[in-house]
């Protein structure tokens, strides 16, 4: 998706896209859990990371739906995942988005109370130490996503998805779970709810 395409979408289209992304993210998340139960941790981790990418896309779309001015380009979020995984850059705008949201909305009157509350919960759970951990996780995520799917040969030895780190997978699962929980309130939004936004 280009910048032009994003900003030309109607409110119903933005919300529809967010809900489709959330549905896909849920499916990927549940697929990961199924693989985890079968002790197939490498592929489970890959699906978990893909679910996180889809949740992030949903939050960006709902930001457009809520008329929140974005101070970052949307194209990399929809097209260039390798950049996201190299530096973890794309997770940081989501944190900034949460800060902007908490300033813009009247939490007591807005129909977006639930949405904003869950976003703020994400912000509160990500202390500076937590943000650093997430940044480090993103720096490894793309490689680990690939390692969970493909057999490779590194450092003069074969690497298999079956060798995957349980610890990294559990971290992926926690991050995905945070987004999954926060997305629940978005699913209940209606296409015309944006009209009830109460700006301070």
Which short descriptors sum up this protein?
about 200 residues, 9 helices, two-stranded antiparallel sheet
Element layout with pairings:
Blueprint: H1 3-8, H2 11-37, H3 41-65, H4 75-79, H5 81-87, H6 91-104, H7 113-125, H8 128-147, E1 152-154, E2 157-159, H9 166-187
Antiparallel strand pairs: 1-2
Structural write-up:
This protein is mainly α. It has one domain. 70% of the residues lie in helices and 3% in strands. The chain has nine helices and two strands. A two-stranded antiparallel ribbon has the order 1-2. α3 packs parallel to α9 and α7 packs antiparallel against α9. The longest helix is centred in the N-terminal third of the chain and has 27 residues, at 11-37. The protein is elongated, with a radius of gyration of 17 Å. Residues 102-109 have low confidence and may be disordered.
- Low-confidence spans: pLDDT under 50, at least 5 residues? 102-109
Globally, the shape reads: elongated
Report the mean per-residue pLDDT as an integer: 78
Order of helices and strands: HHHHHHHHEEH
Structural class: mainly alpha
Largest sheet: 2 strands, antiparallel
Write out the strand line-up for the largest beta sheet, numbering strands in chain order.
1-2
Amino- and carboxy-terminal Cα gap: 31 Å
Strand tally, please?
2
Rg (CA only): 17 Å
Q: In the residues, how many domains can be counted?
A: 1
């Amino acid at each position: 998706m280009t910048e032009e395409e994003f900003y030309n979408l109607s409110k119903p289209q933005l919300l529809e896209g967010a809900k489709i992304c959330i549905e896909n993210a849920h499916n990927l998340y549940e697929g990961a859990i199924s693989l985890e139960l079968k002790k197939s941790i490498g592929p489970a981790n890959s699906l978990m990371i893909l679910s996180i990418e889809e949740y992030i896309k949903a939050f960006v779309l709902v930001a457009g739906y809520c008329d929140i001015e974005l101070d970052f380009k949307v194209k990399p979020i929809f097209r260039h995942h390798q950049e996201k995984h190299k530096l973890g850059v794309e997770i940081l705008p989501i944190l900034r988005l949460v800060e902007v949201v908490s300033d813009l909305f009247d939490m007591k009157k807005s129909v977006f109370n639930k949405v904003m509350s869950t976003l703020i919960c994400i912000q509160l759970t990500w202390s500076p130490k937590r943000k650093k951990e997430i940044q480090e996780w993103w720096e490894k995520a793309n490689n680990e996503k690939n390692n969970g799917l493909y057999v490779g040969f590194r450092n003069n030895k074969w690497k298999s998805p079956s060798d995957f780190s349980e610890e990294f997978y559990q971290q992926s699962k926690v991050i995905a779970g945070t987004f999954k929980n926060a997305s629940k309130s978005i699913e209940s939004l209606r296409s015309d709810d944006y009209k009830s936004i109460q700006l301070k």
